[in-house]
Amino acid sequence: MPTLDMSRTELREVNATLQAAAKAQANEPFEITNPRGAHAVACGLDGALEVTVKGSTGYYCAGMNKDATIHVEGSAGPGVAENMMSGTVVIDGDASQYAGATGHGGLLVIKGNASSRCGISMKGIDIVVHGSIGHMSAFMAQKGNLVVLGDAGDALGDSLYEARLFVRGSVKSLGADCVEKEMRPEHLQILADLLAKAGADAKPEEFKRYGSARTLYNFNIDNADAY
Amino acid sequence: MCGIVGLFLKKDELRPRLGDMLTDMLITMTDRGPDSAGIAIYGDAAEGLKFTVQSDDPTAFDGLAEALESALGTAIPVTLKDTHAVLLVPAEQRAAATELLEGRGLRIMGIGEAMEIFKEVGLPKDVAARFGLREMGGSHGIGHTRMATESAVTTLGAHPFSTAEDQCLVHNGSLSNHNDMRRKLARKGVFTKTENDTEVGAAYISSRIAEGATLGEALEGTLKDLDGFFTFVTGTRNGFGVVRDPIACKPAVMAETDDYVAFASEYRAFADLPGIESARVWEPEPATVYFWER
Predict the structure, then answer these.
(1) SS3 B115
(2) Which domain, by its residues, includes A83?
(3) Which ipTM value was assigned to this complex?
(4) What is the layout of strands, in order, in the sheet containing A164-167?
(5) Which residue segments constitute the domains of chain B, with CATH numbers given?
(6) d(CA A103, CA A156)
(7) Quick one: how far is CA B157 from the chain centroid?
(8) How far is B268 from chain A (nearest CA, A)?
(9) pLDDT of residue B124
(10) Residues of B with Cβ-Cβ distance to A77 under 8 angstroms
């Protein structure tokens, strides 16, 4: 297995090597050693490639991922898998703020906790957090699924569009226009699929679903006096 | 953007290595703040008060020891470190020493039984080398790399800020009500020396402690009384405390082992710490006060 040692290889070279291998559909798995919290590790991969990062990463790991499978055997700093298009990103430890922000597709699995703003403005990505998430998560989330096995912090789903939020534990508070919704069979099916893909040991029935009340979609004429 | 680091040792065996460990952490945070850097280091408590003073004029320290001895009637040890000097003054002569030092145009960076503060404009690696930070031992210390936003890139604008004996503060963020709070503090007789927002935060915490609040209560108070973005790390004679504003967009990460508690803006700063692979690493919660004291 090709190994890129970040104590001896510049970040640009690491990413250029991975990007070229992904583009060439090389299909041989890569291993990254000694990331030591470096920023932007394994960013912009455009093709099926397996990458294992042996340690913790800093800002923006696995950003803009397309088709690649990136596994971080440690924790990730802010903005992990930001704007992911497709593929899979798995974080064994915790993720810092805005994990999976603006993601269009693919699956982000966080086996520890995620901090604030997890899934902010998500646009189709699926995010499964085995632990808990911080405040302002799924703010303005448009599409996709956010699954949380633990608890959610303050203002979950504030100004939410059509993303689905599933939380097993407690929710400290719901944001503006976010409400608890009925769990229908199709939601249980979505949840069961995501839990299986994320290797999460939980039953769909244990979760509650939250979504948009859709009262912010159109201007309410009764509020005209406020402006 | 700025970088913050902090290290609190639980075991005395590591004390000689404090400066070395903190220096590596500080240099790693250069990307976050290349303008200036500073460190507060808590060493052995002295018989008296350590004054850390600074001057841009290398001749300012000429004849200082003699002037202090003739004014205070006792020999005052003076240790020069680049633009700074550390003086050991009998506690009862604090006021007389302050007057003499300020009269000679020296800037007092900090006063304390244990604390010494060194800060200058320049890259963290250069600042660390100028003061010989690596060679400094101690029980705990906090450091800062600055990317200035609220006030000019000057020595006095660099962190840490000390506004009371053995107390200091480093900050990542910006306070939006610092002018209002500066006036409120001035009405209570608490004065700041610079236009800097962080100094107001430091003075706020010091004034609360002077009024009888615990460190924890003073840090709680910042959540109610200070407006803006902040991740604060405050040093005291016995330890350090951490608090983040409720929005918590300024990064923070902590690590704890049997040997130490470490704070940094980014995990990168921990990469060289002994035993970091098996440390408990976590992100401090927003609007939550943490502190460690011996």
Answers:
(1) strand
(2) 3-214
(3) 0.92
(4) A3-5, A30-33, A50-54, A69-72, A88-91, A107-110, A123-129, A143-148, A164-167, A208-212, A178-181
(5) 2-45+139-293 (3.60.20.10), 46-113 (3.30.70.3400)
(6) 18
(7) 12
(8) 4
(9) 98
(10) 251, 253, 266-267
